[in-house]
Amino acid sequence: MNSTQNGFMAKFQALLEKYVVPVATKISQQKHLAAVRDGLTVLVPVTIIGGFAILLAQPPVSASMQPTNILFQFLCTWRDWAAANIGVLLTPYNLTIGAIAVYVTLGVAYQLCKTYKMDPISNLISTLLVFLCVSGVPQGFVSGEATVNAIPLTNLGASGMFTAILVAISVVEINHFFVKKNIVIKMPASVPPNVAAPFHLLIPAVVNVVLFIGLNMLSSQLFGADIPGLIYALFQPLISATGSLPSILLINVLMTTFWFFGVHGANMVGVVTGPLTLVGLTANATAYAAGKDLPYIFAGAVNSVYGGWISYFAVVVVILLFCKSSQARSIAKIASVPAFFNINEPLIFGLPTVLNPFTLITFLICNNLNFTIVYFLMESNFLGKFFVSMPFTVPGPLQAWLSSMDPKSILVWAALLVLDVIIALPFIKAYDKQLLATENVEEMSAE
């Protein structure tokens, strides 16, 4: 880069480091937002189990398919077996994704307890109790000739997630306040800690239960909806707004910019996007199980699968096929296998892409163009939306297919990879030329 470019980049870097990065860092490290982010992260195994359960119970096979060949015979056998055992097969789904808010409550409460160094078990039990008091109120159902009480899943699924987050934070904060002010039941020193701990939080637990039951009754009287219904109605516009194309493109720009400075972009914006993509994923899974149209595009890992995971791999492909710099090629060879499994840190810090304007421009163009194309393909129902969560190391094309059960997603992923290679080629070649010049100077100096 010439001196003018160096001067611009230095000013741009100083500007972001002064005004943007500190604010984003504070947001990502804010204890409640961090508890939400980390609390949702531990739910990944739960969503994976639920996702595979719904795939088994609802195979992507039409009712009209006939066993005319070996593949169709397998699919038709799967379809008939699933129909005969759908009650059993949907049990893991109903108790994971169908009741995801329960796990959100526990995950967020646990992470916030760790921050305050409070006893986790007692806090988790009291938090779950309070959440069930407002979202899991038992109702009477007729079963045969008897009436039984059962907890409906209505407010325990995606629609109850925001209630779960707010209840978890509120209950732990109230517990922490009582403990800090020493408004607790103290047991004699001779009582073992595991016996004394539950009594230690008994007073705040009673306060929380009475408070939230009262608020639930008040909400029903004033607004005609309980707390979960009211909170979901308030957050619904936010979900819709954040799932719009301009919002997602802005998120991509922010993530790419943070990575440019070596700051983990996903962690920075994940405190905001994590709950929204999980809500979208669970709502889509619920719709899929009911045989309805999937409502959300911004769901699960869709932004990563069709965004950065393609563009990073495209840079590796460009370097291996078209570049001559020994530095770039050696890093690309090392990074190629991890990048195929969506692990991009070797490329980020080895090439590096940090403070590299050539890769910054590449990623800004590719990530946003990729998702714009995918957004319109999904909006037109040409491409299936995500409703299954996969481990993040599942390769991109396979993850795109398994997350949506749409085989066209593999072709779209491959086409976007080719497009990204074409876009990245001139920028990475320019960077390669710069690296070659540096390597030639070093070789001459060594001689």
TrEMBL record:
Briefly state the protein's biological role: The phosphoenolpyruvate-dependent sugar phosphotransferase system (PTS), a major carbohydrate active -transport system, catalyzes the phosphorylation of incoming sugar substrates concomitant with their translocation across the cell membrane.
Name the residues that span the membrane. 40-61, 81-109, 121-141, 161-179, 199-218, 238-261, 268-290, 296-323, 358-378, 410-428
- Record has Cell membrane as a keyword: yes
Q: Does the keyword Transmembrane helix apply?
A: yes
* InterPro entries in the record: PTS_EIIC, PTS_EIIC_3, PTS_IIC_cello, PTS_Sugar-EIIC/EIIB
Q: What is this protein called?
A: Permease IIC component
UniProt topology in membrane: Multi-pass membrane protein
- Location of the protein in the cell: Cell membrane
> Which PROSITE patterns has this protein been placed in?
PTS_EIIC_TYPE_3 (PS51105)
Which domain of life, per UniProt? Bacteria
UniProt keywords, alphabetically: Cell membrane, Membrane, Sugar transport, Transmembrane, Transmembrane helix, Transport
Q: Where is the PTS EIIC type-3 domain?
A: 16-427
